[in-house]
Amino acid sequence: MRYLELKIQASEQGVEQITALLLGMGITEMSIDDPHDMDDILQKKHEYGWDYIEDDLKENLDREPVISLYFDEADPKAQQMAVMVKDGILALQRRQQAGEFGQQADLGSLTVTENIVDDGDWKDKWKEFFKPTKVTDRIVVKPTWEEYTPKEDELVIEIDPGMAFGTGTHETTSLCMKLMEKYLGEHPEEKKILDVGCGSGILSICGALLGSREILGIEIDEDAVRVAHENVEENHVEDAVKVMQGDLTKGVDFKADVIVANLMADLVMLLSEDARKHLTEDGIFISSGILVEKEEMVSAAIREAGFRIVEIAEDGEWCAIAAVPEV
């Protein structure tokens, strides 16, 4: 098969804006080549047992991050989506030139390049940039094809996202994992978890490794459901984690102590009212995928749905919100 490849260059701040734009279009299949990620790895090379780093890798750090997208050349809808993406980037360029993002904002060059490629040229290319990532003191996310020797008490999540969103390296996912670890408490085995929009299944797996024995992951995309099932089996948590295809919580009969939803701002707001119905009285609703600039709007919707916000965690341009039912 042949694909239209779009490569978008931007600053780290620009990547946040573009990611939000793409997620808003329903695009979750992307690779982000951020040289700063490699910089973090170089800083921790001894943790990975590396004594030598090739010079060309070091030289590769002095450049902008690159977002890569691929669209089926034979699919008219995919080609239409590619045009929408290019129009969206052009709109970001105009907004930046007009100063809409503030004087201190720098989205980078926002350069788009196009190529026609065969699927064999790109489908595994992104794996070069997905390395073991330490999310918290205990949680490590490791791609299935990488070697990693865990330290004592570390929980290692084996993940192969395939074409599903969720590698653990994105701020929205890591924010969720940090809040899950915090609010599952001392007796996670007593807590049921509902993972809405589970993608690759990474948060469901995280919940199981933290100790929860009953987790339901819901995902609307059929391919992502398949990937999630594979990742659940890879981590040997199939006794605790069940994954089903569905649209948010529609038709779901499940009462949870923890609801986690790594979605988008609009979907979090849409989910909030239903989340209240699926949560126990002393449960907690953790949501992410929310740009900091939309934090107040989403917080207001969550409060209106009958929640009290107990914590807002931020990482870069993204935030996660933890809320409990208002009594």
Automatic annotation (TrEMBL):
Highest taxon above the source species: Bacteria
Protein's UniProt name: Ribosomal protein L11 methyltransferase
GO terms for cellular component: cytoplasm; ribosome
Record family assignment: Belongs to the methyltransferase superfamily. PrmA family.
Name of encoding gene: prmA
Compartments where located: Cytoplasm
Tagged with keyword S-adenosyl-L-methionine: yes
Pfam families per UniProt: PrmA
EC identifiers of the protein: 2.1.1.-
Keyword Cytoplasm assigned: yes
